What does this fold into?
Amino acid sequence: MVDKGNLRAAFLLAPALLVGLLLSACGGGDGGSGGGTGTDESFVASVCQAGAKFQDDLLKAIGEMSSSDSESEAAKAVAKPFKEFATSFRKANPPADLKDWHSEASKKLDDVASALEKGNVDALSGDSIFPDPPQGVADRLSAVAEKNADCQKASLFAQ
It folds into this structure.
């Protein structure tokens, strides 16, 4: 049996961690397939829109959990929002200087979603599920995010 309050807290921290890591490491996009030809503005908009939906979907999934759910069942319950976020993130088109980082981060996010689908809550543990971003990107993207309503809703790119 899992303490629903503690599990909720852990899963609520996960999006903040994901978003913080993303926003400190991403930039630009028109939705495509991560081709490295996007702008900071379009990439931030895509990631923040996905982040806001992820936050809503994750809160809904957590709200539907039972206090008798095991950690494995809880991981499976939140796998769908993570998978949908991973897909949306992968489709975001980063600017050229983030193409390699975006590709690596997308793979790692897909790996987390797959592990959660298998009931592995440990997929969210560890220092970081994302590679370190290129130098100087966080400030650049944060400036763009300050003007985006979805970023504000999801608290993405906040410093």
